[in-house]
Write a structure and sequence with these properties.
This protein is an alpha/beta fold and 336 residues long. 40% of the residues lie in helices and 17% in strands. It has 9 helices and 11 strands. The strands form 2 sheets. The protein has an 8-stranded parallel beta barrel. The protein has a 3-stranded mixed sheet with strand order 4-3-6, with no helix packed on it. Strand 1, helix 2 and strand 2 form a beta-alpha-beta unit. The longest helix has 24 residues.
């Protein structure tokens, strides 16, 4: 009788898994910063010690302004690690060590202006920009296909572009699928993801998770967890409504005072080092999300290749390298 029960029930089990997009492997990832040089085994070893199983490789394209219609990329003027050729070298080196890849080509606006505000002045400029962006993203989609990349990110924090040109994005996704047959994601800003219209066309809901969680100078873990509650409910609802699991395409905090207040800010004027603030905000995020079945993991912002020369207890920037927060990340990554 048990054999017949199993025979009857197994199809429903697999249907259930498909419907809820169960992802058995948690993404314990890092955002791997492009450098002026290639990487070797010695640069990957610290990632293995962290027990990271994914790295986001982030080649950049550049635009001259928020209304400029051409994406410049794969140029000799760029850093070595930001080009197609060297993205491939990073990918191969990491894959040799069984670290999977999310390829995340993204735009940088001159003077660091926010990509979410990119908006053209005319229909002709929009068409030109769409053509240029498509060439940029499809070149990297082909790289992803050729190198067996596990996840490909179609864009990062481009809310105005999506709001103004939604039909283009649905078309772009179809064009990417014609080139690349792996998993797709878009990296929405923390205050954007609720309005992104094409989640059901992708495999994950991607969020750059810089949610404000505390106004305290040195927030406690419990303080941050309370600050997460309202955000978490919204994230969970969007996940359920779209039948997709959530992947934090970026997450992390600077080691500064008030690190949980406006985590997206990276101004160098904010440089009062506070290692406890970074540790507590990081711990709270892990406790709130990493065990949730609808949550697929995330990519720590950010990780530099030259581990022994970055971060440290005098550093106020995002990386947890050689800081107490690195131990928090390692513990979670080893246990998930």
């Amino acid at each position: 009788m048990m054999r017949y029960i199993l025979y009857f029930c197994l199809p429903f089990f697999f249907m259930s898994c498909k419907a809820t997009h169960v992802n058995l492997e948690k993404v314990n990832g890092v955002s791997y910063v492009a450098s002026k040089e290639g990487i070797a085994d010695k640069h990957v070893e610290p990632l293995l010690n962290l027990n990271a199983n994914y790295a986001a490789i982030m080649p950049f394209g550049f635009v001259k302004g928020l209304n400029s219609s051409e994406v410049y990329y794969n140029s000799k003027k760029q850093w070595y690690g930001e080009t197609l050729e060297v993205a491939k070298q990073y990918i191969e080196q990491l894959q040799q060590k069984q670290i999977k890849i999310m390829l995340k080509p993204q735009i940088w606006v001159w003077r660091g202006e926010f990509t979410g505000n990119i908006e053209m002045d005319s229909e002709a400029d929009w068409k030109a920009f769409e053509t240029s962006y498509s060439k940029f993203i499809l070149d990297y989609a082909q790289l992803a296909q050729d190198n067996n990349i596990d996840i490909f990110c179609i864009g990062t924090e481009l809310e105005m572009f999506i709001n103004q040109r939604p039909e283009y994005w649905f078309s772009l996704i179809n064009n990417i699928k014609a080139v690349y047959n792996g998993k797709l994601i878009y990296a929405a800003n923390w205050d954007e993801f609720r309005r992104t219209p094409f989640w059901k066309e992708l495999d994950f809901i991607g969020i750059d998770a810089y949610f404000p969680v505390s106004i305290s100078k040195t927030p406690s873990v419990e303080d941050c967890k309370q600050g997460w509650e309202k955000h978490k409910e919204i994230i969970k609802t969007v996940s359920k409504n779209n039948n997709r699991s959530v992947l934090f395409t970026e997450y992390g905090y600077r080691s500064v005072d008030f690190s949980g207040k406006e985590p997206w800010k990276s101004y160098k004027s904010m440089n009062q080092v506070n290692l406890e603030a970074q540790t507590n905000t990081t711990q709270a995020l892990f406790e709130m999300f990493w065990d949730e079945p609808w949550f697929s993991g995330g990519f720590l912002w950010k990780w530099h290749h030259n581990h022994e020369h970055v971060g440290g207890e005098e550093d106020s920037q995002f990386t947890p390298q050689n800081k107490p927060a690195e131990h928090i990340v390692r513990e979670v990554y080893f246990n998930n």
